[in-house]
Amino acid sequence: MRQSHQLPLLGLLLFSLIPRQLCEIFEVSKNNYTDLNPLINTMINSKYTKGIQAANVLLSLRLGGILNQCQEQQLVQQVNLTVYYKASTLTSGQLALAILALGACKTPDETSIRYPNLVKNLRNKFKAEIKNMGKHNGNPLTNYYQLSLDVLALCLFRGKFSITQVAKIFEPGNKNFYFQGQFSVDTGAMAVLALTCVKNITNGKKKTDVENLNNINNHIKSLIEKILSQKKENGLLGNIYSTGEAMQALFVSSDYYNESKWDCQQTLDTVIMEIHKGAFRIPTAAAQILPALMGKTYLNVNKDSPCVYGPGDFNISTVEPITVTPPLSPSQIQVNYSVVIIEETHSTTVSVANGSVFLDVMEAAQKENATLFGFTVEERSWGPYITSVQGLTANNNNRTFWELLNNGQPLDQGVGSYIVHEGDNLEVRWSTY
Ligand code: B12
Ligand SMILES: *[C@@H]1O[C@H](CO)[C@@H](O)[C@H](O)[C@H]1NC(C)=O
Ligand SMILES: *[C@@H]1O[C@H](CO)[C@@H](O)[C@H](O)[C@H]1NC(C)=O
Ligand SMILES: *[C@@H]1O[C@H](CO)[C@@H](O)[C@H](O)[C@H]1NC(C)=O
Ligand SMILES: *[C@@H]1O[C@H](CO)[C@@H](O)[C@H](O)[C@H]1NC(C)=O
Ligand SMILES: *[C@@H]1O[C@H](CO)[C@@H](O)[C@H](O)[C@H]1NC(C)=O
Ligand SMILES: *[C@@H]1O[C@H](CO)[C@@H](O)[C@H](O)[C@H]1NC(C)=O
Ligand SMILES: *[C@@H]1O[C@H](CO)[C@@H](O)[C@H](O)[C@H]1NC(C)=O
Ligand SMILES: *[C@@H]1O[C@H](CO)[C@@H](O)[C@H](O)[C@H]1NC(C)=O
Ligand SMILES: *[C@@H]1O[C@H](CO)[C@@H](O)[C@H](O)[C@H]1NC(C)=O
User: Any signal peptide, and if so, which residues (predicted)?
Assistant: First the structure.
């Protein structure tokens, strides 16, 4: 494989600015940058980078200082289209992500751009989330990962919000930090980033401020403990897809845990290994892991760092494209597939090409009997998301969703990514989270 590109100079400098106790990240050597190529390729070569996925990618590549002007313009255009023409259909967190991406770096002449209209719109969407919690048993329109993105964007871009309310909502015992009783590391990490920003803009003069600061400090400490308690043998925090954001949370919270509690290098080594195994083939997955690998966090977003351009820019066209999924082989495999709704189970055995994904199995079953195996699917930033099966639709107001399992174990990938194997017992189950 020929690798003839390099990261921009600023990228090199940034490596050396990472606080020492965190991670020795990469040695400044070309060898190490090539480890990141699969991520960058996935993000830049994706033909499907539009909408919110483009916001994820833009934010990530800007934080990394990896884009050239042309690539950046294309991505900004995609995000522009989404925020200016589809604003009303965006969820709160989608808009927040777009604001973070658009504001993630500034050329010297636009340091004052703060997207006041978008921020005002976000404020209204955030209010609607809170209102929904009041009406529907504490359940927001979306989820706490998105409420955290909202607070982060409002905080960084000078939107109005109540610090007292934030301190109250993000109480770590809140059920919205958990899915099926399990602490959600992604959600906790995003909340730590948001709370860290809020903490920093709160000056402790008034009595309520002192109380809020005290609460927020306690929340951060407790969330960090919960994140570290999800550390696996191999150093991952939660699973491979939550690790990047958990690393960001740990980077900004070094005052809240003992250094001996986290071996950053081990986490990093495992992530690099997983990059080479192809774990980050989805652009959003690549986008979420990259900043941490470059020692950056979402709090670095409006630090007035200019976008990095120049002759040393990463030359995308010299990079070999990666295959997105292994090729289908002509041989067929047999898998079991069941739809489970409470006590009622409908099963079938389907035959699909070796190398097929879960979605192919669902489509084969649907062809066989659309009454029993009919379903609807929507494209989201992580790929196809199952919204209904047998006409039964998932609903955030009562925390219902269609859960994916194999051999009784929940999958950590979606229907568009999980490659099925001979003898799999696949299941879509009507569940609550
Ligand atoms: C909240 C959440 C959920 C909620 C979504 C409903 C709600 N109340 O919002 C619930 C609990 C239902 C859920 C379900 C699942 N999730 Co989920 N979820 C998240 C979380 C924490 C935040 C998503 C979000 O709001 N992003 C921000 C907004 C701005 O982006 P968005 O694209 O508009 O968000 C929507 C989609 O992401 C979608 N969504 C949520 N999860 C998943 C998973 C997949 C595969 C897809 C395609 C879409 C999708 O719901 C979001 C709200 O509408 C992410 C964490 C992360 N790191 O991103 C995990 C995450 C995306 N989920 C994940 C997984 C694996 C699942 C499940 C497949 C689990 C399972 N075994 O069933 C199912 C989806 C099954 C299906 N029906 O297709 C993984 C995806 C990894 C991967 N490589 O694909 C993540 C990264 C968590 C992790 N660390 O493993 N999830
Ligand atoms: C970085 O590169 C050096 C030598 O080029 C290598 O020894 C080291 O293991 C690499 N680090 C990582 C995290 O891959
Ligand atoms: C995106 O929108 C902003 C604000 O309307 C505009 O100034 C900018 O030129 C647009 N950028 C692109 C690449 O379309
Ligand atoms: C805290 O806020 C100040 C300005 O109020 C800013 O200069 C500083 O970078 C912020 N620190 C963090 C960690 O965000
Ligand atoms: C950190 O952990 C080490 C080893 O477990 C211990 O010796 C040290 O006292 C701890 N420091 C703090 C500040 O808790
Ligand atoms: C980038 O790659 C293209 C095609 O391989 C080449 O023509 C161009 O000169 C390269 N640019 C830089 C800056 O290396
Ligand atoms: C499916 O393909 C994989 C490699 O792509 C191979 O190892 C496996 O034996 C194949 N299974 C069948 C049943 O053909
Ligand atoms: C689908 O399954 C249902 C229930 O078993 C059955 O009544 C129906 O005839 C089947 N439809 C087809 C097209 O096989
Ligand atoms: C959830 O809400 C939907 C729509 O309001 C309703 O059809 C469904 O029966 C509810 N499910 C549960 C488990 O309460
Ligand atoms: C498919 O499921 C049925 C019923 O659950 C089970 O008896 C059978 O062994 C399964 N087949 C395979 C290949 O696992």
Answer: 1-23
Query: What's the gap in Å between 380 CA and the centre of ligand 1?
Result: 9
pLDDT band at 112 (very low <50, low <70, confident <90, very high): low
Confidence at 295, pLDDT banded by 50, 70, 90: confident
The region of weakest confidence among 50-59, 337-346, 349-358, 396-405 is: 50-59
Name the closest ligand to CA 255: 5
Give the residue-averaged pLDDT of 407-431. 97
Atom of ligand 5 nearest to the CA of 258: 1
| The CATH number of domain 17-300, selected from 1.50.10.20, 3.40.50.1240, 3.40.50.12710, 1.10.10.10 | 1.50.10.20
Q: Which CATH architecture has domain 332-432?
A: Beta Complex (2.170)
* Cα–Cα distance for residue pair 335/357, rounded to 1 Å: 11
Ligand 1 site residues (CB inside 6 A) read 52, 91, 93-94, 97, 142-143, 145-146, 179, 184, 186-187, 238-239, 241-242, 282, 285, 288, 380-386, 396, 401-404, 410-415, 417, 433
Cα(65) to centroid of ligand 9, in Å? 46
350 pLDDT exceeds 50? Answer: yes
Nearest-CA residue for ligand 5 atom 13 is 258
